[in-house]
Amino acid sequence: MCSFYTWDGGTLNGVQIYNNTFYWNPASNMGLLNDSAAYSGSNANFFENNLIYSAVPDLISSSSHIHLDNNLYWTTSSGSPSWTYNGTTYTSFSSYQSGSGQDAHGQYANPQLNGPTYHGVGMPAGEFTLQPGSPALGAGTLIANNGGRDFFGNSVSSTAAPNIGAYNGTGYTAPTNLVSNGGFESGLSSWSSWSGTNTIVSTAHKGRGLCASSLGEAKQGKDFAIQLKKGMR
Questions:
Q1: I need a labelling partner for 49 at 20 to 30 A (CA). Which of 68, 108, 123, 210 fits?
Q2: Longest Cα–Cα distance in the chain
Q3: How far apart are CA 148 and CA 159, in angstroms?
Q4: pTM for this structure?
Q5: Residue 71 burial (CB < 10 Å; 0-12/13-18/19+)?
Q6: Is residue 220 classed as helix, strand or coil in its secondary structure?
Q7: pLDDT digits over 1-40, tens only?
Q8: Cα angle, residue 24 at apex, residues 123 and 181 outer, rounded to 5°
Q9: Is 77 buried (19+), middle (13-18) or exposed (0-12) by CB count in 10 A?
Q10: Interval 194-227: pLDDT, tens
Q11: DSSP assignments along 145-213, one per residue
Q12: 3-class DSSP state for residue 93?
């Protein structure tokens, strides 16, 4: 959640939030961006190149102190998406753009993320990357002093438009995890042959987390066994 608050006479000057990928799934319907701070000074305050993938329809609630552009929004909620800016709530992206003057280069579109709801332990590998054809590819705006690297270690150019979100690589197709193929535990129907060679399978242990298969001489010349424990991938 991006929330800005000040108290006891404090002010903000120069808030910069850019190139993040947010999976937003709060317990109640509220926007990811909530701005209730006081501002002063002449430094730019902006929220740009961010990708918001939300499970709730309310997406942002910002004051007029924050400039928003080149953000991509998406909600999986059945409710109508909404944007609140400077006290006015808009229930379509086009009305938000025209009424607020914000996100002129923003989008409301499915970002085509790989693993957008990932919440496992450790740094994601392919999760939160962009699939080929994603509308976020190359759709960002240049940010001065951007650090030169994204979250995944990809380079970020100082002259070419970046992606929207935390991933600045090319479109990535996540590999299929064959070990987690349900067919292996339910009779090996999809494992019955490999390039036309004989494959002998045993389902004696199906349902117990243990199955075995062997290739005929056309490919291997010796048997091998694969053992799986439930819960492992």
A1: 123
A2: 80
A3: 11
A4: 0.75
A5: buried
A6: coil
A7: 677 788 888 999 999 999 999 999 999 999 999 888 999 9
A8: 55
A9: middle
A10: 555 555 545 554 444 444 454 454 444 444 455 5
A11: T--SB-TTS-B--SSS---SSS--S----PPP-GGG-HHHHTT-GGGS-BTTB-EEEE-TTTTTTB-EE
A12: helix
What is the span of the domain harbouring residue 227?
Answer: 176-233
The answer to whether residues 221 and 147 belong to one domain is no
The amino acid that residue 9 corresponds to is: G
Same-domain status, 104 and 150: yes
Alpha-carbon span 181 to 187, nearest angstrom? 11
159, 15, 85, 26: CA torsion to nearest 10 = 100
Tally of domains in the chain = 2
- Asked if 90 and 61 count as a contact pair (C-beta separation under 8 A), the reply is no
